[in-house]
Structures are given as structure tokens and as C-alpha cells.
Design brief:
- The protein has 225 residues and is mostly helical.
- The protein folds into two domains: 57-149, Alpha Horseshoe (Serine Threonine Protein Phosphatase 5, Tetratricopeptide repeat); 154-225.
- The chain is 52% helix and 0% strand.
- Helix 8 packs antiparallel against helix 9, helix 8 (171-187) runs parallel beside helix 10 (208-221) and helix 9 runs antiparallel to helix 10 (208-221).
Amino acid sequence: MRPAAGLALLALGVGCQPVHPEVPYSPNPYALRCSATSDPPPPPLAPPGPVVTAREPGYQATVAQRYILWEQWQRAERAYNYVVLGDTGDDLGNRQIAAYWRAVALFQLGRYDESAELLVPIALDPSHLRFRDALPWLARLVVLVPESVPPLTFVRYRVADLEPMRTAAQRELYERLLFLVGRSRFAQRDYASARAFLDAVPAASPDAPVARECARVARQLTAGP
């Protein structure tokens, strides 16, 4: 793909997304203890941010996009950091996009904790311009650095947000996300919603044993059938 064409796709938020590196699957390193608890409920989540749009990106953001396209992760991370900090005069929409791509660059550089630090707030803000795009990366980070991805991280994702990944090529990712969203709903004590996601995890999934246990406990806690 020619750089100019790639940049046009990047500006639209489609295509040219770096291939997600394969992460060896370690069964349930992030498993939740599925039991009733007398601990205080988790604090309420912050309300979503304002709905924003992104105008034409500035020079620095455009240069950073080229670095992403060429897989020059170190340069991309540095360039996008200037945009995130507001040093380039870009609007809030472009700063949101810059935060996402900086997180991607940090992931590719193996700086997983720093990547999670940027992606978790994106996942908790449905109005963020890269809300759905954060999902595949977080699904990998929760295996690599589970301590950096809190249990409530996936709580605001809905079935519709997972649907784009419901393909044969991304089957394992989709099934893992069903479990992760269900786990987050369980941690929030939204047991009825948790059951819907956890019951949808296929029996062949590595997450199925924990998903079934969580669903069983959630069923008891909601006195469901």
C-alpha cells in the first residue's frame, strides 16, 4: 500500500492497523474469584466524556501517522506524545486518536504497562473515538500484564461492540471478550448481565471452566433458574 493511501485510511480510522502479535494463551491468569462477598461494592464509574469529533490532524499528528504506517514504533510513540500533551494545537478528537495510537506503539515496543495505562481509560469512556478499537489490545494486555487491567475495564462494552470481531478469523478473540465482559459485569455485581455474556462462552474456549463457574454463582445470586 502506498503511504498516501495508507494515511487516508488511518485518518478514517480503518485499515492499516498493525497486526496484533500473537500472545501465547495462558488459561485464565486473570480469573476472577466468583463468589458472593460482603466487601463494599466497587465505586461508581465516572460518567462518559463529551462527544467529540476530530478535524484535520496537524503536522505532528500526520508525521506520527506515517511512523505508524512504516512500523517505526519508537518515533511514533514520541511524536504522538506531543499531540496527547496538547503541545501541537490539535483538537480533543485528534488528541484522543493520538492517545490510542501511542498506546499501540507502546504495545509494539513491549511497554505493556504504559500501553494499558492509556487504553484502560479509553475502554471506560464509550464516547471516546477509539472505544471499540481498544478491545483487541486490552484482550492481549490482560494476559500479559493482568495487574494493569482492572476487572471493571470491560464493563461498558455491549454485545454490539463485540460483533465486528465475530468472524472465523477472530473467533478466539471474540470468545475471550465474551468472558472478559462477563467478568467485568460480575465484578460490578450486575449478575444478570454477567450471566448473559458468560453463558455465551463456548464450551471449547479455554475460558469456559471459569465462565461456567461465574455464571453458576451469578445465577445463585440472582435466584435465577
